């Protein structure tokens, strides 16, 4: 049970961490999945309520079991989205994205070193260098790196 709970939590955390506003990140399937999951989180309760109301209104109380089953199915869509995002967050990066990850990481470190040399007195929001080997990098690591990049 804790594995399932951790996967849901990781999916939610991944959806909050992944930058959604950047236009060239639209090519990633994660951006689309996060937008759909967020949309389903806001729209699914209303759709489920309308589904139950319409079935009971037009088909009568005899259709209550069917209406409740359909509404539970509709309400489970956001949970399924967060579960899939949690699975995706733990998935390892492909080789092309591993190289891209390292390029971005080096750019962030170089920017911070330049910024630190100009602003000796101000504290610098430093990026912690990931000591993971390329074969261990996950999509969650990429989300954290991209979030750090776009905050600068």
Quick summary:
It is built from 6 helices and no strands. It is mainly alpha-helical and 152 residues long.
Structure overview:
This protein is mostly helical and 152 residues long. It has six helices and no strands. It is elongated, with a radius of gyration of 21 Å. The mean pLDDT is 88.
How do the strands and helices of this protein lay out in sequence?
Elements: H1 2-17, H2 29-59, H3 64-75, H4 77-90, H5 95-118, H6 139-151
Helix pairs in contact: 1-4, 2-3, 2-4, 5-6
SSE pattern, N- to C-terminal? HHHHHH
Ranges where pLDDT stays below 50 over 5 or more residues in a row are none
Strand content: under 5%
The beta-strand count equals: 0
**Overall average residue pLDDT:** 88
Summary keywords:
152 residues; mainly alpha; 6 helices; single chain
């Amino acid at each position: 049970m804790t594995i399932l709970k951790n996967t849901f939590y990781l999916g939610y955390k991944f959806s909050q961490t992944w930058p959604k506003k950047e236009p060239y990140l639209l090519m990633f399937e994660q951006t689309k999945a996060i937008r759909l999951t967020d949309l389903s989180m806001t729209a699914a309760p209303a759709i489920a309520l309308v589904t139950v109301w319409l079935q009971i209104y037009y088909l009568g109380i005899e259709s209550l079991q069917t209406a409740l089953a359909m509404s539970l199915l509709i309400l489970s869509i956001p949970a399924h989205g967060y579960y899939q995002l949690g699975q995706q967050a733990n998935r390892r990066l492909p080789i092309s994205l591993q190289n891209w990850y390292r390029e971005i990481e080096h750019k962030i470190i170089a920017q911070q070193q330049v910024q630190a040399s100009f602003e000796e007195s101000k504290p610098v929001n430093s990026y912690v260098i990931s000591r993971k080997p390329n074969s261990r990098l996950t999509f969650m690591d990429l989300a954290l790196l991209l979030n750090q990049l776009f905050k600068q």
